[in-house]
Amino acid sequence: MLHEKAGLIEAIRARFAHVDACPFQGPRIFFENAGGALTLNSVVETSARFAAIPDNQGRDNVASHALVDIINKAKSDLATFMNASSGQFFVGESGTELLFRMIRTACVNAPKGTKVIGSSIEHPASRSAARRWAGIAGLDYVNVPHDDEAGLVTASDYAALMTPDVSVATILHASPVTGMGMDVGAIAKAIREVAPDCFIIVDGIQHAAHGQMDIDSYGVDGYAISPYKVFSRHGYGIAWISDRLTALPHDMLLGAPEIGWEFGTRDTGAYATMSDVVAYFDWLGGEVSDETGPRARIEAAGRAIRAYETRLTNAMIDGTGNLPGLRDMDHVTILAGADNPAREGLVSIVVDGMPSTEVVTRLNRQGIRTHTRKADHYSGNVLDPLGLSDCIRISVCHYNTEHEVAQLLAALKDIKSQ
């Protein structure tokens, strides 16, 4: 595990910008990783370098050829990172925009009168797109209710509502509200057992930073991530699409290559920063294992990250040192249960008798960055059934430390009496 190798956590933290201090606030602990993870220093450097280059792809000059090579390398790196031996990667405006585009394309090409299936745990990025384009395309939308208490949805939940006329399906890989991960492979298998030709599109935005991705094993057609949530920066999203989703009629310029899904000239620096992210996972895998191949090292890094983040969330829930954990604080309620093996680096809580906004403000005054999730268009699907108007989201990443968790627990221990 990460904490077992001397100096590794320090080496990890040294690779990230603003790891222990905010440029506006000063010293702070960053437990808002689900809202956007810290950025690799290498990403910052790469972004600045490419921002200065005036050339575009597709021209007959040395610089243009170099930019194309960098983009192709990034796509190859992404294929290794996400284990995709077929299909293609492309860049768009954001993860949300890419989910809308993939879901729209699948829906408008689906046979009239067929169905779209998705679950109530989903982020509105996929849920809104599926409901909107199902209606426009004349498809029925089937809602799979999630387990309110466990904060997730399962393959059996999907299977219970599957019919052969389901033509499009959406799956959330991890919830940014409950923090629970879904078994995408099992859900996709349950869908295909009933509707083998269904187009399956996955929202991997929350999951990407917390565990490895393995597209070849899922049997899906689309997968989107937001790079700013996996150590890169804002301003773009990454999508992978299968060969058969690639081939569907889609928005494109007249006369353009039919397999192209990008619009306009993309930022080469965006692609290049994803190579930085993949290189980081490769490095980390080499630190925690004896693996020599890039994919094997990435998988080792994913296992180590998951184990270490579980250690952090367990410390948060069970306590550390002489500090009681969240489960032992009478004024704190943990969403989705204290003992939930599906948890991915995130604990959401409510404090009795205190609005979550007030808790977040008080923590922020002590230099502890968390976030309020409200029962609005983003989180109402999860919070409303629990009778909650809001909650406090505490989200960790593998560069956080147990000492930072202890500081959080010390702040929350007496917060009700402050």
Automatic annotation (TrEMBL):
- Keywords in alphabetical order, please: Pyridoxal phosphate
Q: Which residues form the Aminotransferase class V domain?
A: 29-253, 324-408
Highest taxon above the source species: Bacteria
Transcription regulation as UniProt keyword: no
One Pfam family named in its UniProt record = Aminotran_5
Tell me the InterPro entries matching this sequence: Aminotrans_V_dom, PyrdxlP-dep_Trfase, PyrdxlP-dep_Trfase_major, PyrdxlP-dep_Trfase_small
Q: Which Gene3D superfamilies match?
A: Aspartate Aminotransferase, domain 1 (3.90.1150.10), Type I PLP-dependent aspartate aminotransferase-like (Major domain) (3.40.640.10)
- The protein in question is named Nitrogen fixation protein NifS
